[in-house]
Amino acid sequence: MLGILRSLGMTARAALRRPVTIQYPEFHREIANRDRAFPILIWDEAVDEPFCTGCHACERACPVECMTVVMKDNPKHATGESKRRKIIDEFWIDYARCMRCNICVEVCNFEAIGMNNTWAGHELSVFDRKELVLDLDMLLAQSKAKKVEPGLRA
C-alpha cells in the first residue's frame, strides 16, 4: 500500500511540474554567447556604405571557399565623402558550404564581417540549396535594418 502511495505521489509531482519543452517556433531559447551562426556584412551608417572594401582577405582565408568577392573603385572617395578608395561591388556567401568557423571575421582588416548570432541567423531552412547562396543585398539586410546586436562588430 505504501508503494502505491509513493508512486501516486511521484506521478502527481511529475504532472504538476513546469514543462521542460517550449513551443517552438513561437518561442525560442536564448542563444549562448559563444554560439555561431552565419557571417553577415556590416553597414557603415556614418558614410552610408558597407565597411567591406573587397580586399579578398576573407575569401582567401575561408577553408571551404564559400565566399566570392568583387571590388570596384568607390565613387564616394572621388567626391571626398568616403575614405575608402575601393569598395565591395559583389559579394556572395554559400551558406550551404559555410562551416561557421569564424575565420572570415578574424581576418577581416576592416571589421566588416560579423557572425549573426540571432535566431534569424540560425533558421535558414529552404527547399532548394541554391537559395542558400546570399548576395550583397541579402548579407547587408540585417545590418541596414539595425537588427544586429550592438556587440556584433569585433
First-to-last CA distance:
64 Å
User: Taking Cα atoms only, what radius of gyration do you get, to the nearest Å?
Assistant: 23 Å
What would the principal axes of the Cα set say about the shape?
A: elongated
**Parts with pLDDT < 50 across at least 5 consecutive residues:** none
Beta strand %: 15-25%
Helix content: 25-40%
The number of helical runs is 6
- Round the mean pLDDT to the nearest integer and report it: 89
The largest beta-sheet arranges its strands as 4-5-7
* Helix vs. strand class: alpha+beta
Largest sheet: 3 strands, antiparallel
**From N to C, what is the helix and strand string?**
HEEEHEHEHEHEH
Structure summary, number of beta strands: 7
